[in-house]
Design goal:
The protein has a two-stranded antiparallel sheet with strand order 1-2. It is elongated, with a radius of gyration of 17 Å. With about 90 residues, it is mainly alpha-helical. It contains five helices and two strands, in the order αααββαα.
Length: about 90
């Protein structure tokens, strides 16, 4: 996991693109980071982020769309699918 001095190159690039208050700079850096991660790395990062920041966002296992607790019912994480992906 990169942190401290190992994260400085990312922050330097962000500064070169306009700084951390520039939404386009942030999107460019995030898009590039995601592009260079495997699907599994993205999933692991998202799970870790939600856990660390105490976010309990429920989402469709197929498309990733946020879902309400009512939409999810009693389905497990592996089985949770939104109506659109379920063809309903």
């Amino acid at each position: 996991m990169a942190s401290g001095e190992f994260a400085i190159p990312v922050y330097d690039i962000l500064d070169e693109l306009g700084g951390d208050q520039d939404i386009n700079a942030l999107n460019t850096v995030i898009d590039s980071l995601i592009h260079n991660m495997t699907g599994r790395e993205v999933e692991q990062w998202a799970e870790r982020f939600r856990r660390v920041h105490e976010l309990h966002v429920l989402s469709c296992h197929e498309c990733g769309r946020a879902m309400s607790e009512e939409e999810c019912g009693d389905e497990s994480t592996e089985e949770r699918v939104c109506d659109e992906c379920a063809g309903l």
